[in-house]
Amino acid sequence: MTTLFADALFFVFCSLYIQFGVCTAQSVDTIPIRLAVLAPGDETLPFAMHKVVPAVLYAVQTLRRQGGRPMEVLHRDTECSSTYGPLHAFELYNSGLADVLLGPLCPYVLAPIARYSSVWELPILTAAGQNDNFDFKEPHYRLLTRMNGSYSQIGLIFLQVLKKFNWEVVALLFHNFEDRTIGNSDCYFTLGAVYTALGRKSFYKDFDETNKAMNYEEMLKEVSQNARGKSNLFPFLVE
C-alpha cells in the first residue's frame, strides 16, 4: 500500500514538474521544494503519520534519483483537531517552511486549512476531502487537489443503480456518533452525498454502532416501514 501511494505521489509530483518545466534534464533547479505533511500521529488511524511519511519520502527519493528537483519533507501532527491542525498550518506559513501541503487527512482539519491556503497561495494535495462540500472550487478551495475523488460520485452511481432496477423509494441507514462534539462519521459524509443526489427527500436514520444498548430490531422495523412504496423496497445501509 505504501508503494502504491508513493507511486501516486510520484505521478502528481512529476505532473507539477512538467507544468513548471522542471522535470527535464535541461532545467534542474537546486532550490528544494518544501513539502509539509499534515497527518495525525494516532497509529490506529489508516492515514496515520507513520504510514504516510515513508510513502512521501519514497516518492521524493525516487524523483531525485531520476534527476528531478530536490525536495525537503517535514511533518506536523494535526491530532485530527480543528484547533491544533490549523495552528500548525499557520506556523508553517508564517515561518515560510512549506511550498506545498500534503494533507490534512481529517475533514474537520482540512476544511479550514484549505480555505486559508487559497489566501496564502499555498497548494494542497490530499487523499482526503471526499465530502461534497469540497466539490466547489471557488471561492474557498481553488488550490485543493483531491487524489481520491469525491463522495458526490457515489451519489451519481447510486442514482444509476436505482434507475437500472426501477427503485423509487429509498431509506438511508448509517452509523454516526451520538457524541456530536467529535463531529460526524465517514458514513454520514458518504450518505450525505447520496441524500443530496436523491433530492433531499429520502427517509434516513442514524445509529451509533458503539452503543451496546442500541435496539436494532426496532430500528430496522422503522426503516422498513419508511422504505416501502408501491414499486420496490430498497433500504441502503452504510456502516
TrEMBL record:
Keywords: Membrane, Receptor, Signal, Transmembrane, Transmembrane helix. The keyword Membrane applies. Residues 54-202 form the Receptor ligand binding region domain. Its main location: membrane. GO terms for biological process: signal transduction. GO terms for cellular component: membrane. The gene is NPR3. This is Atrial natriuretic peptide receptor 3. It is found in: Membrane. Pfam families: ANF_receptor (PF01094). It comes from Trichonephila clavata. Gene3D superfamilies: 3.40.50.2300. Residues 1-25 form the signal peptide. GO terms for molecular function: peptide hormone binding; signaling receptor activity. The keyword Transmembrane applies.
